[in-house]
Amino acid sequence: MRLSVKAPAKINLSLDVLHKRPDGYHEVEMVMTTIDLADRIELVDLPEDKITILSHNRFVPDDGRNLAYQAAQLLKKRFNIKKGVAITIDKVIPVAAGLAGGSSDAAATLKGLNELWGLGLSMDELADLGAEIGSDVSFCVYGGTALASGRGEKIRHLPSPPNCWVILAKPTIGVSTADVYKNLDVKNLKHPDTEAMIKALENESYHGICDHLSNVLESVTLNMYPEVAHIKEQMERFGADSVLMSGSGPTVYGLVQYESRVHRIYNGLRGFCDQVFAVRMLGE
Ligand code: ATP
């Protein structure tokens, strides 16, 4: 049997770091939403006890380091499954970009194998399993829009933003999330107004959302990589309504309400940036 599952990227509408915990993780508060930029995961049942990964992308590991592999392995161990699976990842989401591509692949694998192997797990059970793989996997299991807290695994569902365009630009650098956190001065942060973002979503206020986009990691990455700051400036100059870096970067996105502006911004960015996408919000 074979199954194909979509694995959408997320963007951070806000990202706050509250403090560093004794276990080494940071306590965070993130408002995240899924966008219509997705990998596709194909799962094929194997009679023998093995997991294989194929991706045609040299930045994606094809062994136990791959989060989709880890998802399959976790289900096999937990439910004592003796058969295997061949996982093909059609990679569309830029890698190490702040868009949770790997986490979304893991979430899609959990959901797909739940069906393929007839495990009958609920979304909440899948999200709990996801948290064992990585902090963003629980959110990716549900998709939509949510406040993620704790180390990212505690999910409170929120209304999705009114539909609009999301233009994403990723410079040709990979950013190490660990390095960004290392350079973060947790005691001296200008914290996002997360409550105001939640209110804006509840009020379906596009302008409220634009006014409260905020990410405490942004200034750290912008200082480390001037090209990210340049993309942000250019996206603002070309006329995006509001611009923010997603996750630990380096992807910068702009929200745009009117389609008439999308082409100008997209083409302007394509002039100096290889990876540019214009997509829609996914909603629920
Ligand atoms: P996040 O936003 O959750 O911090 P990210 O978008 O910054 O994630 P990913 O694209 O998930 O980063 O990739 C980070 C690293 O994870 C990559 O450098 C890669 O080595 C590894 N990785 C493991 N599995 C995958 C996968 N399925 N797709 C992409 N990268 C993967």
From TrEMBL:
InterPro entries xrefs: GHMP_kinase_C_dom, GHMP_kinase_C_sf, GHMP_kinase_N_dom, IspE, Ribosomal_Su5_D2-typ_SF, Ribsml_uS5_D2-typ_fold_subgr
Matches recorded under SUPFAM superfamilies: GHMP Kinase, C-terminal domain, Ribosomal protein S5 domain 2-like
UniProt keyword Transferase, yes or no: yes
Keyword Mitochondrion carried by entry: no
Domain GHMP kinase N-terminal, residue spans: 66-144
Binding-site residues, ATP: P94, V95, A96, A97, G98, L99, A100, G101, G102, S103, S104
Entry's EC annotation: 2.7.1.148
Family designation: Belongs to the GHMP kinase family. IspE subfamily.
Protein name: 4-diphosphocytidyl-2-C-methyl-D-erythritol kinase
Protein species of origin: Rossellomorea marisflavi
